[in-house]
Amino acid sequence: MTTTHAPTVPPHVPPDLVRRFDMNFRGPLDELFPRLDALRSEGRALWLEVGFPQLGGGAWFFTQDADIRAGLRDTELFGQSKGRPGEPEVLPATLDPPEHGRYRRLLTPLFSPGVVGPMEDSIRQRIRSLVAEIAPRGSCDFVADVAIRFPTKVFTSWLGLPEEDTAIFVKISHALIHGTTEEAPQALGAAVGVLTALIDERLAHPRDDLMSKIATARLDGRPLTRDELLSIAYLLFLAGLDTVAAALSFSFWHLAQTPQDRRTITEHKVPTTQVVEEMLRRHSFVNLPRVVRRDAEFAGVQVKAGDRVIMSLPMASHDPGALDDPTRVDLERADNRHCAFGVGPHRCLGSHLARIEMRVAFDEWHAQIPDYQLDGQVTGHGGMIMGVARLPLRWS
Predict the structure, then answer these.
(1) pTM here?
(2) What Å distances lie between residue 307 and 238, 257, 298, 357, CA to CA?
(3) Three-class DSSP category at 345
(4) pLDDT in tens, 251-301
(5) What is the DSSP string of 351-389?
(6) d(CA 55, CA 76)
(7) What are 12-40's pLDDT values in tens digits?
(8) Number of domains composing the chain
(9) Is 2 within a domain?
(10) Does 100 map to a domain?
(11) Do 341 and 230 meet the contact criterion of CB atoms below 8 Å apart?
């Protein structure tokens, strides 16, 4: 990696800390995490020219677990980064405390273990049926056939969207998160249209689904406005459709290459809950954007108000200063203090649901297809949400 000092770099950033880095990398999946991990040897704090439109072309990037955790908790210093022009406010994701807390308190009970736990039987039946449909084929693209379809069906049906339109929602979500600058505006319009129609329907005729509960909730004693409802629905739509798909795809990419870990699952050598946690840690895939709210010293550098920041959860999860042999998958790892769901007040609301989806997917897939392997090139992509583009598998 070469040091460069381009005109986009703020004058207070030392030139020796600047690196040109393609955060939007697309290519062989086995290159994705090593590219990030290699930055650790470059220093504790770097300025990366990353090419994210939301980041203005450059951002601070921290490489140590302790700094990343501290930064995510310090909402007074690091504020939420706003979305694209024309995008809903995505409450509470783009709000900072104390405003953030008001919406968080409203939504947290709807995602509690007591609420999502009883959904496990229906979730398990969905993945069992999906695997039964695929098993006789002897091969599949795991991303398209399982990792995207399964959580999308689970979440959209819970939210209140028609399950038969799953393919449409997958296309919209993918364009919003991973699409080009030309694709995103059209997808944004489609998402707003779908969600607005859902909100109008649930305000008029509430049902027993998540959107109905949100639509009839009260914030500080008053009903939510339509703008607030759209913002919350948009946040849930984005977060619920892409993240579990990425987590499952990374996990099965590893398992397809590691027979001993597949046997650990099929022979129940460790609880599946423990398998889930190690997979989440090893393949943490979210790079969270933040913005500096005031001038300060952090991680040994001077940051100034308005600077963009990337808090990389994979960097935190792979820090050898925080965990022994962090790039190795160890399903018997007892001390697994990962931050795949983030830390601090913006920690992922859907973590309980995601864990159930992953656990039942591991159980039900391996009950029907215990042995499988890669069947071609596996490709992936970087970005704020890293993921697997294609994962061809085959089995007897």
Answers:
(1) 0.93
(2) 25, 41, 12, 37
(3) coil
(4) 999 999 999 999 999 999 999 999 999 999 999 999 999 999 999 999 999
(5) HHHHHHHHHHHHHHHHHH----EE-S--EEE-SSB-EEE
(6) 19
(7) 999 999 999 988 899 999 999 999 999 99
(8) 1
(9) no
(10) yes
(11) no
Beta strands, E only, the chain: 18-20, 26-28, 45-49, 58-62, 78-80, 139-141, 218-219, 222-223, 287-292, 296-298, 301-303, 308-312, 373-374, 379-381, 387-390, 392-394
Taken in order 76, 345, 151, 106, the sign of the CA dihedral is negative
Q: Is 330 exposed, middle or buried (0-12, 13-18, 19+ CB in 10 A)?
A: middle
pLDDT band at 1 (very low <50, low <70, confident <90, very high): very low
Share of the chain above pLDDT 90, in %: 76
Residue 10 domain-assigned (yes or no): no
**Residue 6 placed within a domain:** no
Amino acid at site 372? Y
Helix axes of 272-282 and 259-266: crossing angle, nearest 10 degrees: 150
What is the residue range of 216's domain?
Answer: 15-394
For residue 99, what is the domain's CATH number? 1.10.630.10
pLDDT at 88: 64
Q: What would the two tokens of residue 25 be?
A: 């990398």
